[in-house]
Specification:
Layout (H helix, E strand, L loop, with lengths): L3 H17 L9 E5 L8 E4 L8 E2 L12 H14 L7 H5 L2 H13 L4 E5 L2 H12 L4 E6 L4 H10 L3 E5 L4 H9 L7 E7 L11 H11 L7 E6 L14 H5 L6 E5 L9 E5 L1 H10 L1 H4 L6 H14 L2 H23 L11 E5 L3 H13 L2 E2 L1 E3 L10 E5 L6 H12 L4
Length: about 400
């Protein structure tokens, strides 16, 4: 059956994005990873660029764990023992001992009773929010929450959805006050680290407000935190935003294995009752294959590394490199949002200039991501740099030198 008019409509939509300057464009294709040198971190080779090496300043691998030999070896050993894929969803025949062990380790790492893994953190959020929302549930969400939270709320379609101004506790209080009577449960959901800016939610204040309003609702004000960019990269021991803000535990914590832990997959931790309920109701868990057994074994090793003296040394180095880069940006006259998290935004506030600066970096062997509307609000156009523990002082200084040569 011909679909020429359908194809034309799709092509037109992409062309419109390109004309606005908001299209993502072609993806860079990594064809080889080059090992770190004596004074420099790893580099990558890209398709079409020959043997010209590139320094990645746009990776979520905050601790540089993905290429560690012990993590790769753990994945290879488990793959040889159990096979390349799980073969089914978990309730049929897809649960293996490394899956169970990983959930146990994640729960222990976060001081929770239980954990549950998904194929990604995005799938985790979409998979758990809908079954937690009843017809008598109101949802309250930060205005800058990640796309996974936004889409999870759209799919769940709560009767009342309140959006409070970014990290504005007075506005959050107003939104909680405005929830009409008759609602039994409130889900208050926030990112821990806001991935576009590298700032963090004031979790202690959020939890305090939740406790203040808790008695108004028969089934509580439940605080759900997605700390995918915080876990493993933030806090003295990598416990994320809860540790950094000294807030105490949220009711539900979502994290990822695909960023600081350097592997793949997502997870939720909380009470044993919560996890037992979600195993019976979360569609992204019930009807989708888990991560591979090899990935689970690699993730177990990554959690072990982060939860060690060596892991704390990596975090110390990461903080040092982040501070070095932030200071360098300020010294060069660039605007940034200061903070300890390794997401370091260079605020450009103009789409065309953002594209020009990204091209300048690329031409000089630096990979960084430009973010424009609608990924970020208009006026907040930026380049998101992401520092890694794999970066050296020489790497950071090389990026700053390239930025110095750009005509501002």
């Amino acid at each position: 059956m011909p679909s020429d008019r359908f194809e034309a409509a799709l092509a037109g939509a992409v062309s419109e994005l390109e004309e606005k300057g908001t299209a993502k464009g072609a993806e860079t294709e990594v064809v080889e990873v080059l090992a770190a040198g004596e004074d420099s971190g790893p580099r990558v080779l890209l398709a079409g660029e020959g043997d010209r090496p590139f320094l990645r300043m746009n990776s979520n691998g905050y601790l540089g764990l993905a290429a560690r030999r012990d993590i790769v070896a753990a994945e290879e050993e488990a793959t040889r023992a159990f096979g390349a894929g799980p073969g089914a969803v978990r309730f049929i025949s897809g649960t293996y001992s490394p899956h169970v062990e990983l959930e146990r380790r994640l729960a222990a790492f976060h001081g929770r009773q239980a954990g549950m893994i998904f194929s990604s953190a995005y799938a985790t959020m979409v998979g758990i929010l809908a079954p937690l929302i009843t017809p008598a549930t109101a949802v309250v969400s930060d205005a800058l929450n990640h796309n996974c939270i936004i889409n999870a709320m759209r799919l769940a379609r709560p009767k009342v959805k309140q959006i409070y101004k970014h990290s504005d506790m007075a506005d959050l209080e107003r939104k909680l006050e405005e929830i009409p009577g008759g609602f039994e449960r409130v889900i208050l959901v926030t990112d821990g680290i806001f991935s576009m800016r590298g700032d963090w939610a004031p979790l202690a204040e959020i939890l305090a407000l939740a406790r203040r309003f808790d008695d108004r609702f028969p089934e509580n004000v439940v605080v759900l935190v997605d700390d995918s960019h915080g876990v493993g990269a933030f806090g003295a021991t990598g416990r994320g935003t809860e540790e950094f803000t000294e807030s105490g535990p949220a009711d539900i914590l979502v994290g990822t294995l695909g960023k600081a832990f350097g592997v793949n997959g997502g997870y939720v931790t909380g009470s044993s009752t919560l996890v037992r309920y979600l195993r019976e109701t979360a569609p992204m868990y019930i009807y989708s294959n888990p991560i591979t057994v090899g990935e689970a074994a690699a993730a177990c090793k990554a959690v072990e590394i982060v939860d060690s003296a060596f892991g704390r040394a990596l975090l110390d180095h990461l903080r040092t490199m982040t501070a070095r880069f932030e200071k360098g940006l300020v010294d060069l006259g660039y605007e940034t949002i200061p903070g300890e998290h390794p997401v370091v935004p260079l605020m450009v506030r103009d789409t065309a200039r953002t594209a020009a600066l990204v091209r300048h970096l690329y031409d000089n062997g630096i990979l960084a991501t430009g973010l424009n509307f609608p990924v970020v609000p208009k006026g907040d156009e930026e380049i998101r740099f992401q520092v890694s523990a794999a970066h050296t002082p020489a790497d950071i200084d090389a990026v700053l030198e390239v930025l110095r040569t750009f005509e501002q």
